[in-house]
Amino acid sequence: MCGIVGYIGEEQAAPLLLQGLEKLEYRGYDSAGVAVYNGERLDVAKAKGRLKVLNNLLDGGKKMQGTIGIGHTRWATHGKPSDINSHPQTSVSGKFAVVHNGIIENYRALKDHLIRRGVNFTSETDTEVVAQLLEYYYRGDVLDALIKVLQRVEGSYALGVICEDHPDELYAVRKDSPLIIGIGNGENFIASDVPAILSKTREIYRLADNEIAKITRMAVTVYDLDKEIVSKEPVHIDWDVSAAEKGGYEHFMAKEIMEQPKAVRDTISPRILGGRIVLDDITLTPEQLKGLRRIEIVACGSAYHVGVVAKYILEKMTKIPVEVDVASEFRYRTPIIDDKVLVLVVSQSGETADTLAALREAKRLGARVLSIVNVVGSSIAAESDDVIYTWAGPEIAVATTKAYSTQLAVVYLLAVYMAQALGTISDQEYTDYIAQLEALPDKIETILQHKENIQYFASKYFNAKDIFFIGRNLDYAMSLEGSLKLKEISYIHSEAYAAGELKHGTISLIEDGTLVVALATQKHLFDKMMSNVREVKARGAVVLGLTTDDCTEIEKETDFTFKIPQACDIMLPSLAVVPLQLFAYYVASMKGCDIDKPRNLAKSVTVE
Ligand code: AGP
């Protein structure tokens, strides 16, 4: 996600800002920019692409003079990656410059409000609304203007702000998106994360939600929204630099597993307004929905596993036939596609060659393409008729976790949205599904709070040679993801199997001590699953059962049990996947594997 840096002191700001942004590159971004007060006005430089483009443009910062400034690496959410959409965003007169991490959820309404009052906007970003509102409310005091702005905007934000009328004041604001203040000697810093300032200071303040910091060279004053001063205790950072880039986690995968509640919340919340699902992202009309003969889902790897989950859910909710295919097979099987088929493409990177080729084949055959993508402006997004972005932020670890979870969240949003438009669910069901969706992030958080139970089980079986994942219906779909996660990062052979299919051959592989992970979250199939558990137990298997926390029967059948919070059947995959991710992570960690960069794998497979 985006990276923020800011500096006020006696040194030239631009070189320090660029060095700080370099330390935040791990967060993933698609453009960068800096703004510095040069003695007369705010000098702004920004560029799409890697940080080195900006560095070269500014000759390492030498081309910008001034000792106060802000900088930003942008992970696009609203508006494609471009120079004009890069931060800092400025107000119409150039008086204010703003950098932002997060999402202003009501930016559209605020933007329309200002446009009606004659304010000219230049970018597609939500962030520009903050800069324009600051100028709109400014009457000489930046803090007063900021407080007024914060009373209007909704969403998540970490903000860095400078104003050309007050060149000795740097402002920082935090709500939901982390922001720290680095305390120096005659100089102070702001940053999204510790790595950006660790070379300059180890003393920091961590801003809490709804706190505003007014920062000068000699002082940091923190206020609440009532303009009351808040006392802050400095925190000493004793991380080593490499650890800091992972936010203190040992691996990016661990960090991204833990970021899932926020990623799912960021993906869902802006699309539930006034108790209704609002998918402004798509132009598919209810008439076009009613005219669909079939939905065809194409993707690869974990994204394909999302498609398998989506098949069960979309067919159940919309009564539209759904097929799902790995993209590399779809293209070569002469698929029956026409304009009455909606092709749903799922891809975290938006650059997977097989998936992009399948998309192009589907369009050539006349299909309408709707894609679920995590990287704004990626090739798959650009070539789709409609795109619903997951707002997981950049995912660094090769093994996907938070992007997968946000893809599931979009599948739920889409399924409920379509079912309501098609009239295949009642108004009460619609309301109930929305409530269930909004409850997901906290339930994921609950599971993460019990992660040591999974760690304990992994410690007993990380030397296993073969591990089977079995399940029925949505639990089978989850078995696919659980097995792939384990294989990808621990290199242990694993298979996912439809539990009812095991007895048709593969059960011959079960012998004394074989580890089987039995997913049994779907209540209507619980008894059938227990029969399958008894089948493998009878042949010597050790069974880890995964079910919901209201189930009391499973302990009689399994050797170990992990329980997840209850939810409606279609949303249980979002909860079941978390222990599966944790199991794979802990096993691989105990085996000493290169978790973030597994052998033979790439984060985005851009070759066929
Ligand atoms: C998942 O952990 C793997 N990294 C891989 O299967 C991945 O899901 C697949 O390559 C598809 O990538 P995409 O979502 O970027 O298209």
Main β-sheet description: 8 strands, antiparallel
CATH class of the largest domain: Alpha Beta
Number of domains: 3
The CATH architecture of the largest domain is: 4-Layer Sandwich
Helix content: 25-40%
Shape: globular
| β-sheet strand percentage | 15-25%
Q: How many β-strand stretches?
A: 27
What is bound: which ligands?
A: 2-deoxy-2-amino glucitol-6-phosphate
Structural class: alpha/beta
The CATH topology assignment of the largest domain is Glutamine Phosphoribosylpyrophosphate, subunit 1, domain 1
The tally of helices reads 19
Corresponding CATH superfamily of the largest domain? Aminohydrolase, N-terminal nucleophile (Ntn) domain
Distance between the termini: 28 Å
Mean pLDDT: 94
Q: What is the alpha-carbon Rg in Å?
A: 25 Å
Strand order of the largest sheet: 3-2-4-1-10-9-11-15
**Which spans of ≥5 residues are poorly predicted at pLDDT below 50?**
none
Can you give a write-up of this model?
The protein folds into 3 domains: 3-238, 4-Layer Sandwich (Glutamine Phosphoribosylpyrophosphate, subunit 1, domain 1); 252-447, Rossmann fold (3-Layer(aba) Sandwich), CATH 3.40.50.10490; 451-588, Glucose-6-phosphate isomerase like protein, domain 1 (Rossmann fold), CATH 3.40.50. The chain is an alpha/beta fold and 608 residues long. The model has no long low-confidence stretch (mean pLDDT 94). The longest helix is centred in the last third of the chain and has 22 residues, at 427-448. The protein starts with a strand and ends in an 18-residue tail after the last helix. Strands 3-2-4-1-10-9-11-15 form an 8-stranded antiparallel β-sheet, with helices on one face. It has a 7-stranded antiparallel β-sheet with strand order 5-6-7-8-12-13-14. Strand 9 and strand 10 form a beta hairpin. Helices cover 35% and strands 23% of the residues. Helix 10 packs antiparallel against helix 17 (474-490) and helix 15 (427-448) runs parallel beside helix 19 (572-590). 2-deoxy-2-amino glucitol-6-phosphate binds at residues 300-303, 347-349, 352, 355, 398-400, 488, 604-605.
